[in-house]
Amino acid sequence: MSYSMEETRALLERVERVFGPAPSEGTRSRSPLSSTSAAPSNSCQSPTHLLNVVGGSASKSYTESWIKNSSSQNKMNETYCYEISQNEKIIDKNQELVHTLKIQIQTLEEHGDSPALIDSKRNEMLLYQKKIDDAEAALINRGPCPIETCTKHHETTKDASMEVESGQYANSYSDFKQVSPKKAAKIRNDVTKSPIKPQINSMSSLILTKINP
C-alpha cells in the first residue's frame, strides 16, 4: 500500500507527537536509563538507605551502651549484696559477744568481784553494741538487696512444698462427679421381683401334697 507525500508527512507528524522526535546521530538519547551511570554514587542513594545506615549505627551504639551499663549495674548490685552480708555478719558476731559479756558481768556482780573489772566489761560491751548500731544503720541506709533472686536476703513468696500441696489436685478430674440430690439415684419400690422364688414355693407345695394326700 503506497502513501502520497502529504499522507507520509502527516503520519510522521503524528508519530512525533506521540513518541517525540527521533534522536539524531551524535546526540544523547532521551531515555532515562541511559542518563544514569551504572554505579550510583553515595549522593544518589535513597533516603531510606541512608536512614538505615544511620539507624543501624545508632542501634549498635545503643546496644553496646546498654550492655556496658547493665554489666556495671550488675557489678554494683553484687557489691551491695556483699556489703549487706558483711553487715549482717558483724551484727551476728557482736550480738554473741554482747550476750557473753552480759553473762560475765552478771556473774561478777553476784560474786562481788572488783567494780573496775565489771566496768571494763561494760565498756567492752558498749563497743560491741556500737558496732551493732553502726551495722544496722548501714543496712537501713543501703536498703534491701537489689538482686531480687538473692535467696540470702529475699524470702520466696511461696514455699514449693506448699504450692504442690495446695495445687496438686487443682486440675485433676475425678471419675466420680458429685450430682445434685434431685439427680441422685433413689431406691425404687416397683422393682420387679425375681420369679424364681415363687416357682420354688409352688413346687414345694406340690411335693408336700403328693406326700401327704
In a few lines, what is going on in this structure?
The protein has 213 residues and is an all-alpha fold. Helix content is 62%, strand content 0%.
Overall description:
Residues 17-49 are annotated as: Disordered. Residues 91-138 form a coiled coil. Residues 29-49 have a biased composition (Polar residues). Keywords: Coiled coil. By secondary structure, the chain is mainly alpha-helical. It has a domain at 61-146. Helices cover 62% and strands 0% of the residues. It contains five helices and no strands. Helix 2 (47-111) runs antiparallel to helix 3 (115-142). The longest helix has 65 residues, at 47-111. The radius of gyration is 52 Å and the shape is rod-shaped. It starts with a helix and ends with a helix. 1% of the residues are buried.
Blueprint (SSEs and pairs):
Blueprint: H1 5-19, H2 47-111, H3 115-142, H4 160-167, H5 196-211
Helix pairs in contact: 2-3
Keywords: Coiled coil
Region (Disordered): 17-49
Biased composition (Polar residues): 29-49
